[in-house]
Amino acid sequence: MTTMFALLVLMTFTVANSQVNDCMSMYLEPTGATCVGTPTACVNSKCTFSAVRWTYLCCRNSTTVTIPVCPATMTPLLGSVKTCRLSNPNTGCPARYSCVQSSVAGTYMCCGGATTGVTTVPPTTTSAWLTAGISPAFVPTPPSTNLVVSFMSTSLIFGQTTTSIDVVDTTPKPPTSVTGFTTNASFRYSLFVVDIDATSNRLRYMMLNVPGSGTNVQSFSGVPVAPSIAINPATFTGNHRFVVLLFQHAAIASPMIPDITSFTIAGFMNTNSASFGNPVAGSYFRVTGTAGR
Ligand SMILES: *[C@@H]1O[C@H](CO)[C@@H](O)[C@H](O)[C@H]1NC(C)=O
Ligand SMILES: *[C@@H]1O[C@H](CO)[C@@H](O)[C@H](O)[C@H]1NC(C)=O
């Protein structure tokens, strides 16, 4: 009996540590099909950006791991399993989602909707930026809403670690949308992605003046104004934090195109505060790995 229990614990531990597969989740497995440029190509599966393979793969529910589901009347974050830890505010869920007990004992996930009858942890907002050490050092005034940042149908929540974005790649793969902040069609929105741990090429992406969608999903498809740099150039090594900031402004903003190498958020905001103000929402994610694989 004790041996069986120990084996069970060991197996559970092994599964919990095999989170990074090609589909970037222990709850998903690749079907073998790819879906680059054709997200609808996946049958009974979902087109998912794989940071491990640096391409888009069709991923289906795992056939070996029990898929946790949200409590009845609640919906999973972007339709998939995003686990969270009650003990770690840096893996908190974005605005309007809570970290709740899923159908699997001991597994918590981000669910939205109902607020009664479930064990919830409030979404982490401003304080999470301070706890994570992003503010005030890199983002002087943290936004009060945390975003989910999506690369096609793969999404990263605040503080999420993603591994092995280490394949040398010269093709920019900018975020396709952000979720969690309700934009207003009367305003325009600008999105920045900044690698705060880079010694060069700090500003990775800058998209300006996109009209608000009026919903809590804001698309950023299209050609960024400048610049647009792949997240994993040959120079990428180690453990980098990527900060994503969403700015809201009424007028068309035309900032001076900043020097991408020495770019700092504080410097940019000082120079351009009149047109951008403070970020209204944002997120950060962490990429581990080494270049040149
Ligand atoms: C995956 O599992 C979840 C939870 O059981 C279910 O809601 C979803 O429809 C499944 N997706 C597919 C593609 O089977
Ligand atoms: C959008 O912004 C306009 C201008 O400030 C405001 O009048 C309107 O109420 C806002 N709409 C929503 C849905 O908040």
Question: Care to describe what's here?
Answer:
The protein is mainly β. It has 3 domains: 2-61, no CATH class; 75-112, no CATH class; 127-287, Phosphatidylethanolamine-binding Protein. It has helices at 2-16, 126-131, 265-276; strands at 28-34, 46-50, 55-61, 74-76, 83-84, 97-101, 108-113, 148-151, 154-156, 161-163, 177-179, 188-195, 203-211, 217-219, 240-249, 281-288. A 5-stranded mixed beta sheet has the order 10-16-15-12-13, covered by helices on one side. It starts with a helix and ends in a 5-residue tail after the last strand. 39% of the residues are buried. Bound molecules: 2-acetamido-2-deoxy-beta-D-glucopyranose (2 copies). One 2-acetamido-2-deoxy-beta-D-glucopyranose binds at residues 184, 186.
Strand order of the largest sheet: 10-16-15-12-13
- Helix share of residues? 10-25%
Distance linking N and C termini:
44 Å
Write down the CATH class of the largest domain. Answer: Alpha Beta
CATH topology of the largest domain: Phosphatidylethanolamine-binding Protein
Backbone shape: globular
Topology, please?
Elements: H1 2-16, E1 28-34, E2 46-50, E3 55-61, E4 74-76, E5 83-84, E6 97-101, E7 108-113, H2 126-131, E8 148-151, E9 154-156, E10 161-163, E11 177-179, E12 188-195, E13 203-211, E14 217-219, E15 240-249, H3 265-276, E16 281-288
Parallel strand pairs: 10-16
Antiparallel strand pairs: 1-3, 2-3, 4-7, 5-7, 6-7, 8-9, 8-11, 11-14, 12-13, 12-15, 15-16
Bound molecules: 2-acetamido-2-deoxy-beta-D-glucopyranose (2 copies).
Residues 44-45, 60-61, 67, 69 line the site of one 2-acetamido-2-deoxy-beta-D-glucopyranose (NAG).
